[in-house]
Amino acid sequence: MSQNLAPPIRRALLLTSLPVYGLLYAPLALIAVFSFAPAPGSTTAGLHWYNDLLHAPDVLAALRRSLTLALGSSILGTALGTLMGFGLSRFRSRARSGFAAALPSLIIYTPIIMPSLVFGISELIFFNLMHKATGLFAAGLLTMGIAHVTFQAPYVALVVFARMAGLDPNLFEASHDLYANGRQSFLYLTVPVIRPAIIGGFLLAFTLSIDDFTISYFTAGPGSTTLPIYIYSAVARKGISPDINALATLMIATVIGIGLLQYGFTRQKDRQTVPRTGD
Amino acid sequence: MSAITGGASIQGSAERAERLARAWRLWMTAGPGLFWIVVFLLLPSLILLGIGFFSIGNYGNPHLPLSLEPMREVAGYSILGWSPDNLATILRSLLQAISAAGLTILLAYPVVFFIITRPPALRPLLLLFVILPSWTNQVVRTYAWMELLGPGSTLSHLAQGAGLIPPHLGLMPGILAMQIGLTYNYLPYMVVPLYAAAEKLDWSLVEAGRDLYASGRRLFWSAVFPQTIPGLLSGIILVAIPAFGDYVVPTLLGGGKSMMIGSLIASQFLDTPNWPYGAALTIFMLIFTCAGLIVFRVMSKRLGSSEGSMI
């Protein structure tokens, strides 16, 4: 088995991978260390820059927008995604193959594989044209939310689908035999059974939204600066600065916390470890 | 006789009703989500591609008649004559993406084999620790490297001391910084598929090789490495494609001189608008992306890798 590799090889693997783990965390740790830098004119390290953040109205406004956007889009994205994952798992005919049967999968994978730059620019043009034509869809939190739902729903669908695939089909037959109609069966059987996947999917959708930069950036309007956009413009304008370090540290801590929470929620069997750039 | 055929037709119509009910339920559940993606992503991206074939208006807006003017501009022709800048940008992006894939392979192999030689209960956690940094915001991750590679940083001082870069300059902005940023950002994308392939490794082949007194190197290249190729190929796709079109890394770490296609496209929609030109560049980027996908799909089909349980 894999464990009985020669000790020197195991040692070499350990010695070569530890630096890689170090490489992964060193930049993030460095930001955290620098975020405790002393205030100008002072020499004692401390929470000065965090304190500054609490009194920066534009940071707080950006945070509020990020949370509003993430919460709103995740609710809709989770609803649409759960229904998609459930429906495709239960009702897609397995007998038929070919284009018609593969079409839903193609549609679901499009937002996942499309480069986020192309995704963002497509939305920018679409909302711009729609706004000119109808006066609706002015660039702002609404257009950002629509774009976020578009990439959240497929991820939630994948998580829910994976969970559904692990269920015994007889479960649904049983509820049918007990004269449950489709809606009853969905609400009283499916939802409780796949609840971990729905919660996991919701948390995934939430972090995807909080993390997203590129797609948000191209769908944002003048008054809809979210946290990642705020950081990006601050960095592009003035380079590295201690208050951005503090803000970035808080974001890293939050996302890693939610990530671990989500890891705990999804069962070992259907755990989906999806790396993401969060752009 | 008639009773039999009657029975069969009743059965047939019941089957048809059942199938209709199934299709109806499918559309009631999966329909709204699919419809949402079609309206808010497929349609917009088709519009974007279409704009690449319009004439360029005075304010960079798309104009009729349809023309190949944006395509000519991508090839480097403008009112000022031909310039190699665009081709250089596309080539640079390709090279950056390929070398990012190469570097992530070098970093991922030891990590993956380190993880699969630990006890099974520990493996998911070790994998999670590789993935966790990728869950933080890409702007934040890239910003962290600005801090590490900027002109005042320790690494830059070391490089200045070693005479690698002129004094007062940093390791950033530039091509090296961009390369580091891309490799860092996309490393987990290489580790995950490689891990999936390595975890299913058939170790009996290694045992067999060992019984035949194969050397360690020989064992790796003939018994282990071939089994990881499917994972390696997915890893290359997952790293090279997003790295090729990345926007954040070249803008923050690359600086003005080392433009990549992602930042070139974005500037056609943000700074001085030129939608048809930007759309034509996007078409080129997607052509490269699809070509890469097809090449690797064909390769992995040849190697007989299976698809796994996908939607």
UniProtKB/TrEMBL annotation, chain A:
It comes from the Bacteria. It is found in: Cell membrane. The chain crosses the membrane at residues 12-37, 67-86, 106-130, 136-165, 186-208, 214-232, 244-265. The keyword Lipoprotein does not apply. Residues 63-262 form the ABC transmembrane type-1 domain. Keywords: Cell membrane, Membrane, Transmembrane, Transmembrane helix, Transport. GO terms for cellular component: plasma membrane. GO terms for biological process: transmembrane transport. Pfam families: BPD_transp_1 (PF00528). Gene3D superfamilies: MetI-like. Its main location: membrane. It is a multi-pass membrane protein. PANTHER family: PUTRESCINE TRANSPORT SYSTEM PERMEASE PROTEIN POTI. This is Spermidine/putrescine transport system permease protein.
Automatic annotation (TrEMBL), chain B:
One of its GO terms (biological process) is transmembrane transport. Pfam families: BPD_transp_1. InterPro entries: MetI-like, MetI-like_sf. Residues 90-296 form the ABC transmembrane type-1 domain. The chain crosses the membrane at residues 34-56, 94-116, 125-146, 176-198, 219-244, 277-296. Gene3D superfamilies: MetI-like. It is a multi-pass membrane protein. CDD domains: TM_PBP2 (cd06261). One of its GO terms (cellular component) is plasma membrane. Belongs to the binding-protein-dependent transport system permease family. CysTW subfamily. This is Spermidine/putrescine transport system permease protein. It comes from Acidiphilium rubrum.
